[in-house]
Amino acid sequence: MEKVGPQTDSLIFVVDDDPVIISLVSARLEASGYRVRSYSYAEECITALAEELPDLIILDFYFLKDGVVPMNGMEAYDEITRLAPEIPVIMLSAQEKGDVVLEFARKGIADYVIKDSDLIDNLQMSVKEVLER
Question: Does 2-125 carry CATH code 3.40.50.300?
Fold first, then answer.
């Protein structure tokens, strides 16, 4: 597994089942100089970790898939940290429940960004802060 370089050359995995979110987030990050790989489901991201380690993963909390129950963000986070604990994860979600956010904080996520009208700006600030740590 190859570790990719820091700063604006940083590689970010974006994992979300909403193609609009993937498109908007990827476009903004690429315009800021980041390299982006996008995945529709957590399982795809986890498989990709065997080939390449990103500097950051942006992970949706809740996934929908016809005919199957895909891994949710909590399960995916647990597997990502088992495989590559050094990779920070920013969780994306429309979830505003305090217990969900608290559970992620306990587990050690780098940040939690709510999917609202400020998503792109808030996420861009979070990415910059997390990668500068």
Answer: no
